[in-house]
Design a protein that fits this description.
This protein is an alpha+beta fold. The chain has a single domain (26-123), classed as Immunoglobulin-like (Sandwich), CATH 2.60.40.3080. The protein has one helix and nine strands; from the N terminus they run αβββββββββ. The strands form two sheets. Strands 2-9-8-5-6 form a five-stranded antiparallel β-sheet, with no helix packed on it. The chain has a four-stranded antiparallel β-sheet with strand order 1-3-4-7, with no helix packed on it. The longest helix has 20 residues, at 2-21.
Amino acid sequence: MKTLLFVVSLLFTSSIMTSAHNTISDDNKKCVEIFKQTNQNPPRGLLIVPIECYLYNRTLHFSFYENLGNTTIIVRGANNNEVRNVDSTDDYLEFNLSNYDNGEYYIEIITENGDVYIGHFNLQ
């Protein structure tokens, strides 16, 4: 009985965690890895980046997990450069790329205190 109760609670917990994290369960959702840019030696431990980004239906979706203050987001490509100043107290932002050409793009996120985060994605 204890084993059955444990298995049921484990399944329930994992289903809650899965549904909370993956709001869109589609094969077209592509994770865009965001890294903190630094001129120093990389830290020896785990560095937690307070930004999550994914590409879905030609739109970049940003989630901010802490208040980064006024933040500048730059998306650069071969034919397109776009700069947006955002306030990351809004914990979610969409960046529409429907008018952008297919190709390779770079993301640069500059926070109010000077931290720089970078990412890279292909638009198809």
